[in-house]
Amino acid sequence: MEGPAHDSLFQHVWILCSGPALHAPAAAETRTGDGPRRAGSILTLHAGRQTGKTTCARWLVDHYNQTARFAVVWLDLETAREQPDPAKAFQTIFDKLDQWVPLAIPELTPNPDRLDWLMNPATAILRYLGDLASRSTLPLVLLFDEADGLVGPAMVSFLTQLRDGYLGRDRVPFPHSVVLVGMRQVRDFVLASEDRKVVSWLGTTTPFNITAEAQTLAPFTQTEVEELLLQHTAATGQRFEAGAVELLYHLSSGHPWLVNALADQVVRDIRDPTGSIVRSHVESAKDTLILERRTHLDSLLARLREPRVQRILIPMLVGAQTGQDVLDDDFSYLIGLGLVTLRNGRYEIANPIYREVIPRALCFIQQAQLMVEPTWYVNRDGSLDL
């Protein structure tokens, strides 16, 4: 659809993350709003896929750099993911630091000796971050996005060096704060891969117990969803009726990607950009998202292959209880992924759309192999033969 109604605000999950009045900035600020935590602290900002983590992290960079109280840098570790060799992974991280640090803090140009530090990967990250901290005129804050994509020895070495910097921060320069942004808390990094054997020699989970605080992004409230939809009305004149707003919030449970995807699909489907949007439009948009299996939903379904996820979801879907080998941390892991929520004291699938998508994915292969013709059970008048 052409026209302003589809130069869609809903193509950008960041709309409700872009101002200090809403919940996004709180994830990396102190309780009092005075800025990142005490010197040397390591934080995690974790939430499910496409909930606005990256956008909120980059908003924080702009926000704090404008205050001239902190020197804040964001960089994405996506290109270092699934690379277990520390030397190769850290070369990629060095390249990202070389790229993003001067963009945020022009006076912090790359140290000409940095390539020599890669000769010893076990201290390379520590030396690079220490050098930046020593040359920064303001307390240095680093946000490592997609940090949970690191694997194997590279992941262990990266976290171990952060811990070394944290322990020695009183005597050796180290960033004021390091924020690890991703879908999982640090304690779940190693548990989410097949690289558990990599850390068996440690005899302890100490490198993974380095964070001072873990924060997550809450879903949008119904009031925030209404605010987003009103932005669309203000920009285009197209109005969401109260019933449509209520259903959109119900179906998404406030998940930022689902809110935006549903609203975007609705304005795509309606031919008259001035026509009001009602419940039936939202219901139709939901069906389209599910049947087309948009990228977000496909990525979500990839998690269903994990045994740790299956041990919880399959019993939930059949109305049973999980086995005794399932711990509270396992439920916390699924909550962090955005698959499950704790509502009124009970664990539930996070939202109605996931409740429809997940069973379809888990049973589709079995369903497609059934040697049964549905028409066998349909009477001539179209009723079911029960």
How would you characterize the overall build of this protein?
The protein has 3 domains: 24-216, Rossmann fold (3-Layer(aba) Sandwich), CATH 3.40.50.300; 222-292, Helicase, Ruva Protein, domain 3 (Orthogonal Bundle); 297-368, Arc Repressor Mutant, subunit A. It is globular. It contains 13 helices and 7 strands. It has a 5-stranded parallel beta sheet with strand order 2-3-4-1-5. It has a two-stranded antiparallel sheet with strand order 6-7. With 386 residues, the chain is α/β, with parallel strands linked by helices. A hairpin with a 2-residue loop joins strand 6 and strand 7 (346-349).
Index terms:
3 domains; disordered N terminus; Helicase, Ruva Protein, domain 3; 13 helices; alpha/beta; Arc Repressor Mutant, subunit A; globular; two-stranded antiparallel sheet; Rossmann fold; about 375 residues; five-stranded parallel sheet
